[in-house]
C-alpha cells in the first residue's frame, strides 16, 4: 500500500444541497450518498466560491478566489469573454502538485477546468475522459442526441460591455431519453472510473476525479428515473415561484430569468424530473464507492464529495444558479479522510460527524495537498480543512465569502459574506440584501433597510470590504459605486493588469 493516500473527488453539477438527507427532507432517494455521509465528516455549511460552473471549478483547483485568478465567467461563447473564463499560466492547480508528488491522475466527466496552457499539457501524465468520448460510444450503440436547440429560450447576456442574447436551456425542456440509464452520460463516465480503479496499480498513489453532469439541464432523463417521482406528491418549498420585496429587479435581466414567469404549481413537473437525475447521480456515486471498497483501498483513501453549485428550481422566481441565495450558493461537502491520516488520533470513518465550521471551495486545494503530502499551489487563499476534519473543535473563522460577475459574459457583479447567522449580499448594480438565515432560512425577508439591523449590516459590509482589499479584488465598493455592465470594457483592462 502506498504511503500517500489515494485521492478521490466526486462531483455532480448543479445539485441542491437540500436534496440530500444530510441537509434536507425533500424526499429524494439518495441511499448511496447518504451512506457516504455516514462515513464522512459532513460540513453543515459550505459554499461555492462563485455560483457558476467554470470559475468555481477553477477556484477549487487553484485555491484562489475568482476575482484573484481572473477566471470569473463561463465565457465560452464569445471571444471577448473567453479570457475571463480561463486560468492563466501564472496560477497553478492541485492537479499539477499531485503529479509532481508522484500521483497518477485519471478524470472522467465534465471538463470545466479551462487553463493556459491546457490542463492536458499541464499534467501530461494524466488521463481525461470527456463528453466527446461518450458521444462516440452512444453513436456506436445506434443512438443520436436530441436536438440541442429544442428547449432553448433567449435570455439577456453581456460581452465586453455590450448586450446580446443567448439561448439558454429552459427549465421546462424535459425529455425522456431514447436510450436507457446504462447508456446515460454520467453512468458511462462512472463505469470508466470504476474500470480504471479495478485495473490500477494501487502500490502507487492515485487520484480519481469524477465530474458528473446530472442534474444540470437540459433535463433529459432515462428510465427508470424519468418516471420515478410523481409531480403531484412533491412538496414544494414555500419560496418556489414567489418573488419577495428586497430582491434586486436586475435579476430578471440575467440568465436567472429563465422560467421566471412560471406559476408555482408548474414547477412540480420540473422538480420531479430533477429529482430523477439526482437519484441517477446517486447511483453513479454508489458504483464508484463500491469499486473502491472492492479493491480494498477505501479505508486509506481521501474521498471528497461536493457540487460546483446549487440550483434555484423556482426559488425566488429564479431558475438556474448565478445568485447568492442558499439554493444556489450553498453546496454539500463530505470529506472522508484516510484512516491513518492523523497518527495517534482517530482517522477515517472514526472522524465521521457534522462540522459547524463554514467551509468554501477555495479550501479544497489546500486540503487535498495537505493530505497528499505535497505543496499546495502557490499563493493559496483557502485554508486546509484537515484540522477541522480531524477535530470538531478546531478554531476557524466564522465567515466565508463569494463573488459573482456574470454567466457567459461579465454583467452584474456581486459580493457576499456568509456567517453562521447572517448573509449580506452587496450588488454593484442594485440594492444590497441582508438575511437572517437562522430565523429566515428561505430568505423571504431582506433586512437591509430595517433600522433595527443597521449595525449588523454595517459590520458585515465592513468585513466584506476588508476581504475584498485583502484578497486583491479588482472591484472596490467606493470607487466602483454606480457601476454598470457597459463599464466592463474598461474594468477588463484593470483585471488583466492585476493578474499579470
Short description:
The protein is built from 13 helices and 18 strands.
Key descriptive features of the protein:
alpha/beta; 500 residues; eight-stranded mixed beta sheet; globular; 13 helices
Protein model, in words:
The chain has 500 residues and is α/β, with parallel strands linked by helices. The chain contains 13 helices and 18 strands. It has helices at 31-38, 53-62, 66-69, 94-100, 119-122, 131-140, 185-199, 267-294, 326-329, 364-372, 386-390, 454-470, 488-499, and strands at residues 6-13, 41-43, 46-47, 104-109, 127-129, 152-159, 162-169, 174-176, 206-215, 219-221, 301-307, 333-336, 353-355, 359-360, 400-404, 414-418, 422-427, 433-436. The strands form 5 sheets. Strands 5-4-9-1-11-12-2-13 form an 8-stranded mixed β-sheet, with helices on both faces. Strands 15-16-17-18 form a 4-stranded antiparallel β-sheet, with helices on one face. β6 and β7 form a beta hairpin. α1 crosses α8 (267-294) and α7 packs parallel to α8 (267-294). The model has no long low-confidence stretch (mean pLDDT 94).
Q: Overall mean pLDDT score?
A: 94
Our Rg estimate from Cα atoms comes to: 21 Å
Low-confidence stretches: none
Largest sheet: 8 strands, mixed
The N- to C-terminal Cα distance equals 42 Å
Strand arrangement within the widest β-sheet reads 5-4-9-1-11-12-2-13
Q: Name the structural class.
A: alpha/beta
Extended strand count: 18
**Can you count the helices?**
13
How much of the sequence lies in strands comes to: 15-25%
Shape: globular
What is the helical fraction, as a range of percent? 25-40%
Amino acid at each position: 500500500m502506498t504511503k500517500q493516500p489515494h485521492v478521490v473527488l466526486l462531483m455532480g453539477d448543479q445539485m441542491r444541497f437540500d436534496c440530500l438527507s444530510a441537509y434536507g427532507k425533500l424526499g429524494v432517494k439518495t441511499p448511496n450518498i447518504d451512506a457516504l455521509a455516514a462515513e464522512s465528516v459532513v460540513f453543515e455549511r459550505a459554499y461555492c466560491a462563485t455560483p457558476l460552473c467554470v470559475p468555481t471549478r477553477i477556484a477549487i483547483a487553484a485555491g484562489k478566489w475568482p476575482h484573484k485568478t481572473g477566471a470569473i465567467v463561463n465565457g465560452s461563447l464569445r471571444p471577448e469573454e473567453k479570457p475571463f473564463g480561463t486560468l492563466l499560466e501564472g496560477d497553478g492547480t492541485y492537479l499539477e502538485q499531485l503529479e509532481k508528488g508522484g500521483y497518477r491522475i485519471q478524470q472522467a466527466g465534465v471538463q470545466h477546468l479551462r487553463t493556459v496552457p491546457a490542463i492536458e499539457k499541464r499534467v501530461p501524465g494524466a488521463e481525461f475522459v470527456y463528453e466527446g468520448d461518450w458521444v462516440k460510444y452512444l453513436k456506436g450503440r445506434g443512438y443520436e442526441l436530441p436536438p440541442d436547440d429544442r428547449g432553448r429560450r433567449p435570455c439577456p447576456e453581456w460581452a465586453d460591455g455590450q448586450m446580446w442574447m443567448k439561448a439558454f436551456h429552459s427549465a421546462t425542456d424535459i425529455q425522456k431519453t431514447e436510450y436507457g440509464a446504462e447508456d446515460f452520460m454520467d453512468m458511462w463516465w462512472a463505469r470508466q472510473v470504476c474500470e480504471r480503479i479495478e485495473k490500477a496499480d494501487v502500490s502507487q498513489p492515485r487520484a480519481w476525479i469524477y465530474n458528473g453532469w446530472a442534474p444540470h439541464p437540459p433535463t433529459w432523463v432515462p428510465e427508470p428515473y424519468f418516471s420515478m417521482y410523481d409531480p403531484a406528491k412533491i412538496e414544494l418549498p414555500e419560496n418556489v415561484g414567489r418573488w419577495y420585496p428586497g430582491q434586486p429587479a436586475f435579476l430578471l435581466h440575467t440568465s436567472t430569468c429563465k422560467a421566471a414567469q412560471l406559476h408555482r404549481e408548474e414547477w412540480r413537473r420540473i422538480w420531479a424530473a430533477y429529482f430523477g437525475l439526482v437519484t441517477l447521480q446517486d447511483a453513479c456515486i454508489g458504483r464508484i464507492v463500491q469499486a473502491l471498497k472492492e479493491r480494498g483501498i477505501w479505508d486509506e483513501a481521501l474521498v471528497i464529495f461536493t457540487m460546483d453549485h446549487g440550483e434555484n428550481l423556482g426559488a425566488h422566481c429564479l431558475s438556474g444558479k448565478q445568485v447568492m441565495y442558499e439554493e444556489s450558493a450553498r453546496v454539500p461537502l463530505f470529506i472522508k479522510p484516510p484512516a491513518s491520516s492523523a497518527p495517534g488520533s482517530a482517522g477515517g470513518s472514526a472522524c465521521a460527524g457534522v462540522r459547524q465550521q463554514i467551509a468554501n471551495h477555495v479550501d479544497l486545494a489546500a486540503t487535498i495537498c495537505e493530505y497528499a503530502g505535497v505543496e499546495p499551489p502557490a499563493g493559496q487563499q483557502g485554508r486546509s480543512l484537515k484540522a477541522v476534519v480531524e477535530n470538531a473543535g478546531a478554531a476557524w473563522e466564522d465567515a466565508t465569502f463569494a463573488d459573482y460577475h456574470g454567466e457567459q459574459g461579465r454583467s452584474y457583479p456581486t459580493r457576499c459574506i456568509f456567517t453562521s447567522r447572517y448573509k449580506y449580499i452587496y450588488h454593484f448594480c442594485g440594492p444590497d440584501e441582508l438575511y437572517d438565515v437562522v430565523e429566515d432560512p428561505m430568505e423571504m425577508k431582506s433586512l437591509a433597510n430595517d433600522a433595527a439591523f443597521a449595525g449588523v449590516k454595517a459590520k458585515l459590509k465592513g468585513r466584506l470590504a476588508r476581504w475584498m482589499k485583502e484578497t486583491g479584488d479588482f472591484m472596490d465598493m467606493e470607487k466602483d459605486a454606480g457601476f454598470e455592465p457597459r463599464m466592463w470594457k474598461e474594468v477588463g483592462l484593470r483585471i488583466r493588469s492585476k493578474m499579470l
